[in-house]
Write a structure and sequence with these properties.
With 242 residues, this protein is of the alpha/beta class. It has a single domain, classed as HUPs (Rossmann fold), CATH 3.40.50.620. Helix content is 42%, strand content 15%. It contains 7 helices and 7 strands. The strands form 2 sheets. Strands 3-2-1-4-5 form a 5-stranded parallel sheet, sandwiched between helices. A two-stranded antiparallel ribbon has the order 6-7. Bound molecules: zinc ion (ZN). The site of zinc ion has 9 residues, from helix 7.
């Protein structure tokens, strides 16, 4: 029972780690900074298990003395029961009347952060790291800086802790996210992200592009691909240079 009362420490961080490009970059970022890093992943009835399957190989590739336990939380019933979206059901991806794509799962990130904070509380971890971004994104309101700041306040009041919600990608576009990976881990980390992470909404791992695997046409693939082109053009990163 003592583990439930462990005070948060400066040295620890919990990374929301989905197996995608952004959360992998955040994991590498956290491993550079914090003495003890744990990860959490969520099952929520995703249409494709591909991203979750990527998590363990990525953790193995990023092996570090700082890398601690991995936690899996199953929210399939909770989120699946709230209604269908293109992220959780086999329906076409399209823009809704609100201007948001129907891949938006209302409340998802809020629920993820609440669960993450509960784990961080139990594990004595002060920092919660999430790859949300409002610079080059799909418009999800729960990815915005104001939402994260409000969640930090609510979690700290509701759990009587001083968690810090870290969002290293918040103000970066996708080109800058690739650049951050190169800064953190050089070509080796860029390769891990290209080869092992998964972003495509359609779960496609049969089509290989310079930026990794994916259908190449869904909104997530387009953001990733456009960022890759901008970054490689600006940085001069090429296969030959490596
Ligand atoms: Zn795709």
């Amino acid at each position: 029972m003592t583990q439930f009362n462990t005070p948060a420490t400066e040295g620890g961080a919990l990374v929301l780690f989905s197996g995608g490009q952004d959360s992998t970059t955040c994991l590498a970022w956290a491993l550079k900074r914090f003495a003890n890093v744990e990860t959490v992943g969520f099952r929520y009835g995703q249409r494709h298990a591909v991203e979750m399957d990527c998590r363990t190989p990525i953790r193995t590739a990023l092996t570090s003395v700082s890398l601690g336990a991995d936690h899996i939380v199953d929210l399939t019933t909770a989120i699946g029961g709230l209604g269908q979206t293109a992220m959780t059901a086999d329906i076409a991806i399209e823009m809704g009347e609100s201007g948001l794509p129907n891949t938006f799962v209302p409340g998802r990130n809020l629920l993820f952060l609440t669960c993450a904070a509960a784990i961080a509380y139990r594990r004595g971890l002060k920092r919660i790291v999430t790859g949300v971004c409002e610079t080059d994104y799909s418009g999800y309101p729960d990815c915005r800086d104001d939402t994260i700041k409000a969640m930090q306040l609510a979690l700290n009041l509701g759990m009587e802790r001083r968690f810090v919600l870290e969002t290293p990608l918040m103000w970066l576009d996708k080109a800058a996210t690739w650049a951050m990976a190169a800064d953190l881990g050089g070509a080796a980390l860029v390769d891990v992200i290209r080869e092992r992470t998964h972003t495509c909404y359609l779960g496609d791992r049969t089509h290989r592009h310079p930026w990794g695997y994916g259908c190449g046409t869904c909104p997530a693939c387009q953001l990733r691909a456009q960022g890759w082109v901008r970054w490689t053009t600006a940085s001069g990163f090429t296969e030959i240079a490596r």
